[in-house]
């Protein structure tokens, strides 16, 4: 397993740590960032989430720069992203921070695209790498999640709703990238019997 794939596996390993820190009944007190008071556990979990998200850029950049792009990496990288984002969004729904209907749309898109990727891999023998709309979608989701985990930092929960706006932007890019992926691969549906 090459280094980019190991970095991707590290991202997957950070997910349960993120979840445990976020939902376990630890009481480490609160922290007050500019206008955003939050439990220390939320702050630590947000840092873990951000570090895990940054590994997405690092592994992809390193793989392309050193010609280490593999089918395993093309499969693992988006899967790791989906696991991380889904875990974070589900926790945010549980905390009452994110509306469940938006998260259902986002996670449904992830399942649909993952299923189509599997069909393409099985029928055409090639794992399709993420396209630019999917990468934009991932970064808008990451920003929205980070802002929600940090309690709408730097504006706080009663200030300018930056986290909510970021969530809506991520929803738009999620729908757009899902439609783009399904449309570009519509031959799977047309040619299936």
UniProtKB/TrEMBL annotation:
Q: How does it sit in the membrane?
A: Multi-pass membrane protein
Q: Per the similarity annotation, which family is this?
A: Belongs to the CDP-alcohol phosphatidyltransferase class-I family.
The biological pathway it contributes to is:
Phospholipid metabolism; phosphatidylglycerol biosynthesis; phosphatidylglycerol from CDP-diacylglycerol: step 1/2; Lipid metabolism
A single MF term (Gene Ontology)? CDP-diacylglycerol-glycerol-3-phosphate 3-phosphatidyltransferase activity
Q: Which gene encodes it?
A: pgsA
For this UniProt record, give its keywords in alphabetical order, as a comma-separated list: Lipid biosynthesis, Lipid metabolism, Membrane, Phospholipid biosynthesis, Phospholipid metabolism, Transferase, Transmembrane, Transmembrane helix
Enzyme class at the top of the EC tree = transferase
Q: Where in the cell is it found?
A: Membrane
What InterPro entries does this protein's entry cite? Answer: CDP-alcohol_PTase-I, CDP-OH_P_trans, CDP-OH_PTrfase_TM_dom, CDP_ALCOHOL_P_TRANSF_CS, Phosphatidylglycerol_P_synth
| Protein name as it appears in the record | CDP-diacylglycerol--glycerol-3-phosphate 3-phosphatidyltransferase
| Organism of this sequence | Heyndrickxia vini
Q: Which reaction does it catalyse?
A: a CDP-1,2-diacyl-sn-glycerol + sn-glycerol 3-phosphate = a 1,2-diacyl-sn-glycero-3-phospho-(1'-sn-glycero-3'-phosphate) + CMP + H(+)
List residues traversing the bilayer.
7-28, 40-62, 83-107, 165-183
UniProt xrefs under Pfam families: CDP-OH_P_transf (PF01066)
Role played: This protein catalyzes the committed step to the synthesis of the acidic phospholipids.
EC number annotated for this UniProt entry: 2.7.8.5
């Amino acid at each position: 397993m090459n280094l980019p794939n190991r970095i991707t596996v590290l991202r997957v390993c950070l997910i349960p740590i993120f979840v445990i820190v976020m939902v376990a009944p630890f009481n480490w007190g609160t922290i007050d960032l500019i206008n955003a008071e939050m439990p220390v556990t939320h702050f630590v979990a947000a840092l873990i989430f951000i570090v895990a998200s940054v590994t997405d850029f690092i592994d992809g950049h390193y793989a392309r720069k050193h010609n280490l792009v593999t089918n395993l990496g093309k499969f693992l990288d988006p899967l790791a992203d989906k696991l991380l984002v889904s875990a974070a969004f589900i926790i945010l729904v549980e905390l009452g921070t994110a509306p469940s209907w938006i998260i259902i749309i986002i996670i449904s898109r992830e399942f649909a695209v993952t299923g189509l990727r599997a069909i393409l891999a099985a029928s055409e023998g090639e794992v399709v790498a993420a396209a630019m709309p999917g990468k934009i979608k991932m970064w808008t989701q990451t920003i929205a999640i980070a802002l929600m985990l940090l309690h709408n930092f730097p504006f706080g929960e009663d200030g300018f709703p930056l986290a909510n706006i970021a969530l809506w932007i991520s929803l738009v890019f999620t729908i757009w990238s899902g439609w783009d992926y399904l449309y570009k691969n519509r031959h799977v549906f047309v040619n299936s019997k």
